[in-house]
TrEMBL record:
Residues 100-260 form the CRAL-TRIO domain. Coiled coil: none annotated. This is ACYPI006869 protein. GO terms for molecular function: phosphatidylinositol bisphosphate binding. Signal peptide: none annotated. GO terms for cellular component: membrane.
Length: 310
């Protein structure tokens, strides 16, 4: 069985390097700069020398994600370790072999599609297997997403943005009611920094009758920018206006494999990286050691009552 998702796609990597001016010498220089900066941050974990090559490649992935922006790369690296501290349940890998064979895993299909769009973006797809919500856990969405994105970081980033495609035919109000909206907002805020992807668009396919209710519930917790990038498709024809058919799987009128095959390949890839996940789970930030930001002094806020005259 071919592994559609095995990465990196060398042609896409070359395209990104050329677009962002990432030469071999420049990458080595920028990676060294970030590594040196990491050593000055007391709250970041101290990584063993055995992981030097892995960390260098990992940082290079952030450079691609941030279009070779050093400051955004530093923010991404720091946010990654902080996210692991703030949301340990998202990074739980205590028993991946049993997890990927569980009913919980099977209930939610979440994959990155194999091919890129013509402008170099990937398709992140998910749906629920049926309308019964007893196996639904909102945290599963975040956990599965991060497993895939961390594998891309390990294997090689060959894209900088995504289309999110959600088939909502099996979503009910019971699913929506299980979301902790404040947790969702907090997680999105930190995850956007830890995984600095460009969200091109979110496509809601076959929206349910209560979609307006769901939109009103979620709107206060999602940024205006993200909300503006939502599209609703009652049929496949309108989806094809945004995403070329040859990038989509057979179930959605495309020719890029089928969802079940791609899902099984992702299960295999997660299992193949089990030891790597386990070796990295303990590396997280120590927030008690985070340097406190210096408060800036503003003359605009100073009044005569705050002055002490000799």
């Amino acid at each position: 069985m071919p592994e559609y998702h095995v990465i990196p796609n060398e042609e896409e990597v070359k395209r990104l390097k050329k677009e962002y001016g990432l030469t071999k010498d420049q990458i080595a220089k920028d990676v060294a700069t970030v590594r040196s900066w990491m050593l000055t941050q007391p709250h970041l974990p101290k990584l063993p020398e055995s992981k030097n090559d892995e960390i260098d490649f990992w940082i290079e992935g952030f450079l691609r994600l941030t279009k070779n922006n050093l400051e955004k790369t530093k923010l991404g690296v720091e946010s990654h370790f902080r996210l692991k501290t703030l949301f340990p349940q998202v990074y739980d890998v205590s028993d991946l072999p049993n997890y990927v064979e569980s009913d919980l895993f099977e209930y939610l299909t979440m994959v990155m599609m194999p091919k890129h769009t013509p402008d170099g973006l990937k398709i992140m797809y998910y749906n629920f297997n049926d309308t019964n919500s007893h196996l639904f856990r909102p945290i599963e969405i975040y956990k599965r997403m991060r497993l895939m994105l961390d594998i891309y970081q390990k294997k090689g980033i060959d894209f900088t943005g995504i289309h999110v495609l959600i088939d909502t035919r099996h979503i009910t109000l019971s699913h929506i009611s299980q979301f902790d909206l404040f947790q969702l907002k907090n997680l999105i805020k930190h995850a956007q920094k830890a995984y600095p992807l460009r969200l091109k668009h979110t496509h809601i396919l076959f929206p349910p009758s209560f979609i307006d209710v769901a939109k009103n519930i979620l709107k206060p917790f999602v940024s205006k920018k993200m909300f503006a990038r939502l599209s609703f498709h009652k049929n496949l024809e309108s989806l094809w206006e945004h995403i070329p058919r040859d990038v989509l799987p057979i179930e959605y009128g495309g020719c890029n494999g089928n969802v079940d095959m791609i899902r099984e390949e992702w299960k295999t890839l997660i299992l193949k990286n089990n030891d790597w996940f386990l070796s990295n789970v303990s590396y997280k930030s120590d927030e008690s050691k985070r340097p406190k930001k210096k408060k800036s002094f503003s003359y605009d806020k100073m009044s005569f009552k705050t002055l002490i005259l000799d």
